[in-house]
Amino acid sequence: MQQRLFFKALLVVVLIWLYKWYNAEGTLEVEEHPSFVPRKTTELNLPYYEFSGTLEQSPNDSREYKLVRLPNNLVAVCVHDPNTTKAAASLSVNVGSLTSPRKFLGLPHFLEHMLFMGSKKYPLDSEYSLFISNNSGMSNAFTSKTQTTYFFDIANSALEGALERISKFFVDPLFAPDAIDREVNAVDSEHKKNLQNDGWRFRNLKSTLTNASHPYSKFMTGSLETLKDTSQALGLGLRDQVVDFYKKFYSADIMKLAIVGNYTTDQLVEWAVAKFSDIESKGNTKLQYSGHPLDSSVLGKIVYFETVGEHYVLNLEFAMPEMKSMYAAGPDKYILTLLNNEGPGSLVSYLKEKEWASAVDGHMENPEYDGFNIFSLLVEMTPKGYEEYENIVHAVFAYLQMLADNGPQQWIHEELRAISDLDFKYLKKPKSMNTALEMSSGSHNEYVVPEHYLTKDSLVRNYNAKAISDMLSYLNPQNYRIFIGAQSHSKLNCTEREKFYNVAYHLATLPPSLTSGMSLNWKKSYGFHLPTQNKFLPENTDVIGTELPRGEVQLAPTLLRLTNSTEVWFKQDDQFLTPHGHIHLNIKLPNTSTTPLDRVLAQLVNRCINKVFESEFYAAELAGIEYSVAYLGTRVEIILAGFSNKLPHLLEAILERLTSFKIEEHIFSMSMSSLKQHYRNERHVMPAKQLVATRDQQLNIVPFWPVQALESVIDNATIEEAQALLDSMQVQSFSKLLVVGNFNESEALNISRMTERVFRSKSMPSYLYSPPRVVDIEPGHYIYRNQLQNKNDPNSAVLVTIYCGPASSTKERIMANMFDHILNQPFYEQLRTNEQLGYIVDSLNKNHDSGKEMLMFRVQSESNPVYLTQRIDRFIRDFRQYILEYSTEDFDALVDAVVKTKNERLKTITEEAELFWSSIESGDYDFDRIREEITYLQQLNKEDLLEAWDKYINPETATEYTRVDSHLWSAKLSYPTDKELSVYPEGVVSLYGCMESEGFSRIDISELDRFVRGASLRNGIESPLRDLKDLYISKAKPLEASANASDIRDIDNISASGSKIKTALEMALGSDSKAFTRPASN
After folding, report:
1. Which of 774, 790, 805 is a domain's end point?
2. Main-chain dihedrals φ then ψ at residue 363, nearest 5 degrees
């Protein structure tokens, strides 16, 4: 008996020890934090633990928070926001690309894609996305080196349904075999989208050239090569690999959840516990590793690499220890504030004065890294700076030496702390989704105590001089490496190639002149010094009270003054009640932009002004004031936002400086050089973005000048002409001023009078205004084609623009909004998910300067633009039926979702001011537009929508069908001639392009045309497919020494499901399958 009691006691001790050992793997649990106490949910009586301490919370944050830990160790924060019209949630897993298996690089990112593809309870791969979009929401996910985060926002009423669906990602995902190929293609498209992106290329090169045994060196995104091809080569199923990865690493213990909604915290906790407790607890599954990516084999090196665009990059990287435990001291904030300072005596101002650099960015790479970190100083050099890069490096270390010699300064820390405390005290309420993202993805630092869960490292806390000095000691010439990027390096050849982006580079050892041989005298040679105290810190943060009864809000600004030279609008803050303000000043000038040279001169003037202002008004940015000054030729636009106390002083200082501005020769020279560089780099922008500018040119926006026209005349611009243009702005003008926020009427009038006093000019008659003008396009179908100038980009792009009525009509605006709301997700689902056309697939509604509403459909893909346009046409043709199949209940829910979106409460004074400004700037002064639109929406029915579709979108019924197609062709595809397009049907051109892009290019277009004319679909598509294969083989074999050529072997693939050649052949023969169907409702 005693022996049995002894073993029972021993068993209890062992179990307790095992429990503590298991929970010591970095989880937040009761033994570590006694203030987490057991609780039960109110409805289902489910167990969880709640933090009973006090969360550090802004006094201006009226939301209610509960921090809880589920029985499976998942930590969640639930946020009750009674005023939000949008709910949101985010779940972040502390597993990212560092965890990629060496044999399957990019697997964590591929897993992110696969989890969207259905669960046992919700097997349709579009179920989650359609539920979100149908309830006025959006969803997305991202994979970084250390985490994978899934998030959404949605109408409050649909929050529980969205939580139910997303929770199943982590409980019983399907990993459907038919989705594997689709999503690996999507990952590959995402990778190929970035192949010509210098940012992605550079980041991957830096990772590749680190300690090869460290997980930091892995390729992040994944591709067909690293996933599908590798699995086939190894005889391992890709589905098995992703399932095994999910089972091994996706553990509740390393997940952080945040839920925001207008429900009580008890209700949100109920849902969190009920829906997420089934996620399996596997302990701390975070990847364990040792060492530093920047070890001795990497430090002391210099890497020259080639860029796609014209960029001159200098990057210094220093090996740092882990910084997570230092979040409260924040020595990096102190050092980075000084390194990034652009004021007098700073490193940045020195480099700009020397014309060596246009920008400097110092940052810690990622606060979440375990066991290491990397301090990065990125210098955007000028061409002159590129030749002087060694002197730039010397200047960097001289500035660091100045900081070390002066030692940590407590007054600087206290200034940073004062700004931080003000931002905290008067916290601007973020959107629900931003809150959810920050509370989940930003919560993986195990050193952050529960009390700081909401604020984390956002506050400047304790002054720690030793921590600052210790961090500075790592920034030394024996602990770094250098990257130098340019399109070409005349003094050496970049003969080595990075594997995944094909970046050319050359690796060498740093010379002694950049390591031990540096001798620096910062006092004598550089004139560096610490910044002075910040004059833009607010001295008064009192909030002006409102005379309106509590809860009542003035819905429009008041016109305070209207003269022949100025128009002043004002609204005192009556809903946010913080010491913030927003000032928007628009000074209209006579139209001087009638030629390309006029446009170039305006751009040069704007660059000259901002290069000077960046230094002179940098202190305002540090004090929490956001400002922008834009000289646009036909107007000057000044926008200020921040603590109201200093905004009038800053506006006056900007206007005084602007009206006396003299362009210096070296500033003009730098601006000219950077503008030329900008023009040249436009050709390297990804195709989907280029299409926007191309469309503006095609739609005849006046004045609009393509980059090629500006580039051709820039050398004719002189400093004298630029100065004359700048001086002319005070001859005649008309100002519109909006003052919103913590001001009274008297202060707003004083701002107006100050503006007139400083900016002295005569009034401008209205006929000299230069409003946006667009040549009205006659009804018809217009197609514009261009070829990409970047010869290495494999992507083409298409933008289809359809006019859908005047924007001045409430009815037409609402119809366009509704189309935008219901189109985007099905369009994305069909062309991206199902047809795998490319990574960038979207549709949107835009109010054009012509005063017309427009629907736009955009696709970027390796497929040819004719094929892409045909697939868009097929989607549009079938979408009427999609609308027709809406039940009355579903349509009412759709309308309700759009109403809730329009009813969404403004979050900040700036949001309110921007809403007012859109009506002031347009000149319609329709401040009641949203309420008018909501009233119209509430009377809308499905028949109204179908009527609008037939009137504007359906080419078979629209009486004034107006459409513009913009095509950008990759240089890697054969660009059809005008003759070919006029002779051959678009189906033949499309089919020819698909065969070429998939590697079957042995049949010329005339032979393909004859084949299509003689083919028949009487016996289905398989018969003409077989005939096409036979034709191809007959043409290919005589040209090859062996019948085993890869394209002949692969020709059978054109019969596969999802083959673009198969689809193109069906379209060429006039009988392609239906584009998409409405998913069944759950």
Report:
1. 774
2. -160, 155
Give the whole-angstrom CA distance, residue 211 versus residue 204: 14
Do 1009 and 903 share a structural domain?
no
- Contact call for residues 719 and 663 (beta carbons, < 8 A): yes
Mean pLDDT of 216-240: 96
Q: Are 354 and 639 in contact (CB under 8 A)?
A: no
Residues 592 and 623 in one domain: yes
CA dihedral 298, 301, 306, 312 (to 10 degrees): 120
Question: For residue 176, is it within any domain?
Answer: no
Amino acid identity, residue 636?
Answer: V
Supply the DSSP symbol for 683. G
> To the nearest whole percent, how much of the chain has pLDDT over 70?
92
Return the residue matching tokens 């916290």. Answer: 427
Helix (H, G, I), strand (E, B) or coil at 1015: coil
Instruction: Identify which of 519, 516, 496 has the alpha carbon closest to the alpha carbon of residue 508.
Output: 496
Query: Which band of pLDDT confidence, cut at 50, 70 and 90, is reported for residue 694?
Result: confident
Residue 316 has pLDDT above 70, yes or no: yes
Tens-digit pLDDT profile for residues 488-518: 998 899 999 999 999 999 999 999 999 987 8
Picking from 100, 125, 119, the residue whose alpha carbon sits closest to that of residue 179 is: 125
Tokens of 885: 């199949």
101 domain-assigned: no
Give the number of other Cβ atoms within 10 Å of residue 905's Cβ.
13
- Please check whether residue 871 lies inside any domain of the structure: yes
Instruction: Give 935's contacts (C-beta < 8 A, 6+ positions apart).
Output: none
pLDDT of 1051 reads 72
Other C-beta atoms lying within 10 Å of the C-beta of residue 401: 20
Q: Bigger pLDDT: 1049 or 226?
A: 226
pLDDT for res 562: 93
For the chain, how many structural domains are there in total?
5
Residues 737, 565 contacting (CB under 8 angstroms) = no
803 and 950 belong to one structural domain: yes
The answer as to whether 832 is a domain residue is yes
State the angle between helix axes of 986-997 and 865-884 in degrees (0 to 180), rounded to the nearest 10.
110
- pTM recorded for the entire structure: 0.89
d(CA 878, CA 1077): 9
Candidates 954, 976, 956, 958; CA nearest to 967 is 976
Per DSSP, the three-state class of 995 is: helix
880 touches 942 (CB < 8 A): no
Condensed to tens digits (0 to 9), the pLDDT of residues 558-592 reads 999 999 889 999 999 998 999 999 999 999 998 77
Which structural domain range is residue 654 located in? 558-774
List CB contacts of 512: < 8 A, sequence separation 6 or more.
none
Q: How confident is the model at residue 667 (pLDDT cuts 50, 70, 90)?
A: very high
- The DSSP output letter for 957 is T
